[in-house]
Design goal:
15 helices, mainly alpha, about 65% helix, about 325 residues, 2 domains
Length: about 325
């Protein structure tokens, strides 16, 4: 029975067109199959993240699916990811000359976040802290802080004002975000096809062991990693090609340079927890970071190392 119910989960849906994934998610929702809906929307999110994009619409739909399912703790996390996706997408769109409307979306999502926190049974004092200090409560990139009196008033109102949450509550507002995303996905596909066409067969000139070029030293390898990281920082994550992303993940796994680890932290620090997870997973294979005995000499590298260790503890139950 399980095999008949779950075959779709045995393959990566992210290879499908985005429109097909969104449609599949809504079809699952119409049958109140929240798990399958989350799987479809999650695949759309992964599809975007593979080319360092953010699917704001899919993030929102997955939040609402979690909300209706009653999984309020995960719904809060997904709402935060959606808020971050709005900010990051808007920032990148501006660089390309597009201005995306964020005010209504951020206001509506922040209200939905507060309602979900209330239903999650966050206390009055927890809500005060959330409004009062940006670093307290739940954090997202565009979060604002308020005076103590304002925070108390907002916390009080949170228990008396209800936000009606539905899938179509931001339907029109998401349209320019989705159009920008699709444009970027199309560009990424074209770049990928172009790079595949340039791939040639290995040179037949190197037929013997004597003809192999000398292997680069570890210092040369780390210097090349450092140069690539500088290039990625200048481009920003969203503009990296698939090849660049694969190289970045390789650097995460194998670099032994503390300064390179620091650069990786600078590069990925802007990402939310879910967006950053793919890099944390790669870093969790790096021997330099999983050694618990000694702290790393640079603050940023050590901060990233602690994040990797926390990830391993949660995953493996260490």
């Amino acid at each position: 029975m399980d095999k008949k119910e779950d075959p779709i989960k045995q393959k990566d849906l992210a290879i499908l067109p985005r429109a097909q994934l969104i449609k599949g998610g809504f079809e699952a929702l119409s049958k109140k199959n929240f798990k399958d809906a989350q799987y479809y929307f999650g695949a759309a999110i992964r599809k975007a993240k593979r080319v360092q994009l953010w699917d704001v619409e899919a993030e929102f739909y997955k939040f609402v699916a979690l909300y209706f399912e009653g999984n309020y703790n995960e719904a809060v996390k997904r709402c935060l990811e959606c808020l971050d996706a709005v900010k990051l997408t808007s920032d990148e769109a501006i660089k390309d000359g597009h201005i995306l409307p964020t005010d209504v979306i951020e206001s509506t999502l922040s209200d939905a976040l507060i309602q979900t926190m209330v239903i999650r049974r966050d206390t009055f004092w927890q809500l005060i802290n959330h409004f009062w200090q940006k670093s307290k409560g739940e954090y997202y990139l565009s979060k604002k802080s308020y005076s103590l009196v304002e925070a108390m008033m907002k916390a009080w109102m949170a228990f008396s004002i209800e936000t009606k949450i539905s899938y179509n509550m931001l339907k029109n507002e998401f349209k320019p975000f989705t159009a920008f995303l699709q444009e970027q996905l199309n560009t990424a596909d074209e770049m990928q096809k172009g790079s595949e066409e340039k791939v040639t067969a290995p040179s037949q000139e190197l037929t013997s062991a004597d003809s192999k070029p000398p292997q680069p030293s570890m210092e040369e390898i780390e210097n090349e990693f450092a140069a690539n990281l500088r290039k990625y920082s200048e481009l920003t994550l969203i503009r990296l090609s698939n090849t660049d992303i694969e190289e970045l993940l390789k650097i995460c796994r194998v670099t032994r340079s503390v300064s390179n680890i620091s650069e990786i932290e600078k590069l990925t620090d802007m990402l939310g927890p879910n967006s950053k997870k793919v890099y944390i997973e790669a870093l969790s294979q790096n021997e330099l970071l999983i050694q618990k005995e000694e702290k790393l000499s640079e603050h940023l590298a050590e901060r990233l190392r602690q994040e990797v260790l926390e990830f391993l503890e949660k995953r493996e139950g260490i």
